[in-house]
Amino acid sequence: MSCKLRLLLFSFLFLSILALGQTVRGSPASSFHLQDGDWYDNFGIDRNYYGGPDGYLPSLASETLNENRELAFSIGESFLVDYPNSNERAVAILKYVQQWTEYGYDSDNVVRDGVAQEEWAWNADEMAHNFNATIGVTAIGDCEDMAFLCGTIYVGAGLEAAIVDATDHVALLIWLPDFSNADNYWDLPNDNRGAGWIWVEATGSSNPLGWTPPDFEDGGWTAYSIGSLEFVAEPIPTQDASPSIDIDLLVIIGVVVISVIGAFLRARRR
Q1: What pLDDT shows up at residue 94?
Q2: Domain limits of the chain?
Q3: Can you give the pTM of this predicted structure?
Q4: Angle at 73 between CA 177 and CA 192, to 5 degrees
Q5: What confidence score (pLDDT) does residue 178 get?
């Protein structure tokens, strides 16, 4: 094989890897812009505030589920394969998140344009990309960050999840009525299935699955199902959005390179 042909084949392989990498590993929120003092991502979600039509509760879950699912969801899928028993799977997921995340205050860990953020929410994939089990790197986040991470992983693992919006706290519930070690089994309004939701508290490294913190045992909080969201956050085009290469472009690249190689080979035969 000639050097020119090797170069062409190498170029095609490089472009293929680049395109696939950008398609599969593209971050759901690729850019942020400042508006009225708050930072919004390219889905139009306010990362500094939980409430209102643009707040991150529970809208931020939509960035890592359904057509936007990526790394966190795939982690859940791997647990579904490795743990056929739903109770064992649910316990293993919580332990996994507790092992590879560390609680930290936003003001100590999140800076935008040189300004520390008193309040900030990361989506599940942003958290998932920030830890690395292979080299022992943990991701730092607070209660809502861990709740969104857990929620997407649990949904990917085939379990129903609901984000808990409590006073000064965000947590998660999962539907697991057969789990025998919970201290409370919650019955959500309009669910019509009775008590079978259990609490997931990932903010402490040793909190067991099904343990409800005493401050929230009175039920004075709201829960939003994230397994089947009724709303979709549409991306907002921004000037600094990261470009991506899709599969159609990859096919075009392949056709062009193959055509060039064919022409080169025909020219050598003359």
Answers
A1: 98
A2: 32-269
A3: 0.77
A4: 30
A5: 97
Question: Phi and psi for 81 in degrees, rounded to 5?
Answer: -75, -40
Q: For position 118, what pLDDT does the model report? A: 98
16 with 24: CB under 8 angstroms?
A: no
- Concatenate the DSSP letters of all residues of the chain into one string: --HHHHHHHHHHHHHHHHHHHHHHS--S---EEEETTEEEETTS-BTT--SSTTSSTTGGGGGGSGGG--HHHHHHHHHHHH--SHHHHHHHHHHHHHHHEEE--HHHH-EETTEE-SS----HHHHHHH-BTTTTBPEEE-HHHHHHHHHHHHHHTT--EEEEEETTEEEEEEE-TT-S--S--B--TTT-S-S-EEEE--SSTTPPTTPPPGGGTT--SEEEE-TT-S--------TTPPP---HHHHHHHHHHHHHHHHHHHHHHH-
Compute the distance between CA of residue 182 and CA of residue 163 in angstroms, rounded to an integer. 18
Neighbours of 89 (CB within 10 A): 20
Q: Which pLDDT does position 190 carry in this prediction?
A: 82
Q: For position 192, what pLDDT does the model report?
A: 86
Q: Which regions in the chain score pLDDT beneath 50?
A: 3, 5, 7-26, 229-234, 236-252, 255-257, 260
What is the rounded distance in angstroms from the CA atom of residue 22 to the CA atom of residue 244? 6
